[in-house]
Design a protein that fits this description.
Structural class: alpha+beta
Strand order of the largest sheet: 8-7-11-9-10
Strand content: 25-35%
CATH topology of the largest domain: Outer membrane lipoprotein wza fold like
Largest sheet: 5 strands, mixed
Order of helices and strands: HHEEEEEHEEEHEEEH
CATH superfamily of the largest domain: Outer membrane lipoprotein wza domain like
Distance between the termini: 13 Å
CATH architecture of the largest domain: Roll
CATH class of the largest domain: Alpha Beta
Shape: elongated
Mean pLDDT: 78
Number of strands: 11
Length: 275
């Protein structure tokens, strides 16, 4: 009888180990742990989140004016200098706008017809627009130019343990790593949320940042806000592979049933022993 009780105790210990492992893996899936304490009061956002122009970026430069619309024809000259597309339209107020696509050169310039080279490297789109406006005014081409600059080809590539690995187009100038991963269907259950790697080109060098998505301090990580051409790699946790499968679901359910049955058997045996 003692041997039977010992055997049952061993089974119960194994079941407890399986269930405990399940609890640990569940904890590893939770994002931003500790947020309740840290964000009990509002916290100031300190890191930069506006994307800045880099060499090889494709941008749209839109110029609007209320001057003589013929002046905008200046910007239609020498279209082969980087222009990928062009459009022209009138508004009801009588203004005319031209929009052209250009590529930032390796040394950080955008070359505009009639305006020439304008340095835009590491500028936000808004700063680049003001710089182009000032150069147009200095050349006295248009009195009141209003310039808008937009980034055309901004995207981030995501590979690894996500539900849908792909290149994600950035639709605004403020995008977080969470925004990007959400567009990939979120992380797979087997992913290492504590070891998400982001690769970024900075001043001609490639840097790697590691993000722990389970830690609320990830909001202060310099790579939390993504930039164009970033690459995100989500490493899979091999030890959790079985836990995401149908087999593990069956195993968990079976362990629960077995645990209940073992408890009943142990209770019955203990009653018999007491008689």
């Amino acid at each position: 009888m003692k041997k039977k009780n010992l055997f049952i105790g061993f089974i119960l210990l194994c079941i407890a180990g399986v269930l405990n492992t399940s609890c640990v893996s569940q904890k590893k899936l939770v994002y931003f742990q500790g947020a309740e304490k840290v964000y009990a009061d509002a916290q100031k956002i300190t890191q930069q989140y506006e994307m800045r122009l880099k060499p090889a970026d494709q941008i749209t430069v839109k110029i609007t004016t209320t001057d003589n619309p013929e002046l905008l024809e200046l910007f239609a000259r020498d279209i082969t200098m980087g222009t990928t597309s062009a459009s022209q339209n009138y508004s009801q107020s009588g203004t005319l706008s031209n929009a052209y696509g250009f590529t930032v050169t390796n040394d950080g310039y955008v070359i505009l017809p009639a305006v020439g080279r304008v340095y835009v490297d590491n500028m936000t789109c808004e700063d680049a627009a003001r710089c182009i406006e000032n150069q147009i005014k200095d050349l006295k081409l248009i009195k009141d130019p209003r310039v808008t600059v937009r980034l055309q080809n901004a995207r981030v590539t995501v590979v690894g343990a996500v539900k849908t690995p792909k290149s994600v187009s950035l639709t605004s100038e403020r995008n977080t790593v969470i925004d990007v991963l959400a567009q990939c269907g979120d992380l797979d259950v087997t992913s290492l949320r504590r070891n998400v790697k982001l690769f970024r080109e900075v001043n001609g060098q490639r840097q790697m940042f590691v993000l722990d998505l389970t830690d609320v301090d990830v909001f202060n990580n310099p790579a939390f806000y993504v930039e164009q051409n970033d690459m995100i790699y989500v490493e899979p946790n091999r030890s959790l592979g079985v836990k995401s499968s149908a087999f593990y679901t069956f195993l968990s359910a079976g362990a629960s049933i077995l645990g209940l049955a073992s408890s009943i058997v142990a209770l019955v045996l203990s009653i018999k022993d007491s008689k």
